[in-house]
Amino acid sequence: MIRAAIIVFLVAALATAILAMTGEPGHATLVWLGWRADMTATAFVLITLFVALAAMVGWRLLLWVVETPRRAARARAETRRRQANEVLTRGFLAAAAGDGLEARRLALKAADLADEAPGLVRVLAAHAADAAADPVAIQAAYSAMLGFPEMRLAGRRGLMQAALAQGDRAAALAHAEQAYALTRTARWAWRALLEARLEAGDWDGALDLVKSALARKIVSPIVAERARAALLAASAAQLEGSSDPKARAQAQDFAVEAAKLQPGFAPGVVMAARLLAADNKAGRAAQALESAWKAAPHPALWLAYRDLKTDETPRQRAGRLADLALTNPEARESRILMVEQALIGGEPGRAQEAARALEAEPLTARIAGLMARACFAAGQPDEARVWMARGVSAAQEPDWSDLDPEGRAFAYEPADWARLVASYAESGELVHPRHERRERTMSELPQLPISYVDSAAFLSAHEADSAPYPIGEGVYEEEEPPAPNPPRAGERRPQARRRLASAPRVAK
């Protein structure tokens, strides 16, 4: 209205200015209902404009009076909306803070105020019930969401979590299945179903879930590929021990497919090589192991590669292992393998020369044991004992625990495979259940003769590294290893595993 008044005055000023500039005031006559009015043209223009302005003001005033009730209603609604938003905000903050009583009180208040946001009120009621840890209220709040199409997915998730909290895994799985059927993008429902399949050892069902998740674009292709490789390896492990030839053939097919999908997944490759070798297909087994070594060297790979042939001399075996190491010469495992193959071939000088490439590596029990074996093979028992003393307190390498004391790689239980599948699929990380459970594995430190030799300088190769462990006079005695824990019910006591190189080693 202010803009309209400004426009009227501008038009009046413009008209008056034009008339004044012409120097002719003009003449206007108005006759209406027997009345006659004579005036100048300027006066007529101004009167007309002011009448128009008065009419506009009057009309706006009339409209303002008529709309007063509506304005009052809008003001009340705005105030109510503002109060509802404030109550909802305070309620969600109280639920996030774990104040269940306050959150429930505010949820009841919001139900009276937030008529325009019933969905938010139901969500607040559910969160308040969760914060108050009231199972009955939780069930009621999330069940109420199922009556609204846009809230069904949230309701199913809340009911699934409530069922899990009460230990009802069957009900939780049923809610996850319904949620997965409800929408194509429910990743949490897919993950819950996948974990249930893995826990039950249902590798085929888990494979179907991975394929459907890829089709729905819930997971990326690389995650799906890693999951498929791990699940195929788990399926092969389940069938490997079967006496049925068809089952063993199926296990071989699964393992070979897993090795092709992910050459860097050592469990699948080692299993494929083991099954192919048992089926007189040593050439294919060697190719699978070589491809895996190029992708991701692992200690279990070269041990499986070593055992492919049993009718060769130590030097022939050492040469074959050296060729394997040269397929990925810059890898840490390849440098370790160069030392191993030199020890197997009976060349201690080459073993010590290859060991120099590991001096910059962080010290672990495995590295210390390898150095000790190289020194002992070269006729330096005192140097070997220094490395053994350093290895006593050095960290263990988790990937080495994939080999059990019997020398069998990745002989996992279904629960171990389930965890391995979940971890490898999500992150590509190869977890090590034996290492995590601190099961007995092969000792990285060799057994050396207990007599102390006064021949060599005790620290000739290690003066710059660290001080030696104190040695008493007389006979050097190794600490007696602790007695192993007795096996649990149904658990097989591991036996002594095959030794890996030149010096004797024990299971720890």
> What CATH architecture of the domain at 184-296 and 408-440 would you give?
Alpha Horseshoe
Q: Give the ordered list of helices and strands.
A: HEEHHHHHHHHHHHHHHHHHHHHHEE
Strand content: under 5%
Largest sheet: 2 strands, antiparallel
Structural class, by secondary structure, is mainly alpha
What is the overall number of helices? 22
Number of strands: 4
Oligomer: single chain
Given as residue ranges, the uncertain stretches (5+ residues, pLDDT < 50) are 450-484, 486-508
Percent range for helical residues?
Answer: 55-70%
CATH class of the domain at 184-296 and 408-440: Mainly Alpha
Question: Termini, distance in Å?
Answer: 93 Å
Q: How much is the radius of gyration in Å?
A: 42 Å
CATH topology of the domain at 184-296 and 408-440, anyone? Serine Threonine Protein Phosphatase 5, Tetratricopeptide repeat
**Global shape:** elongated
Main β-sheet, spatial strand arrangement = 1-2
Q: What is the average per-residue confidence, as pLDDT, rounded to a whole number? A: 82
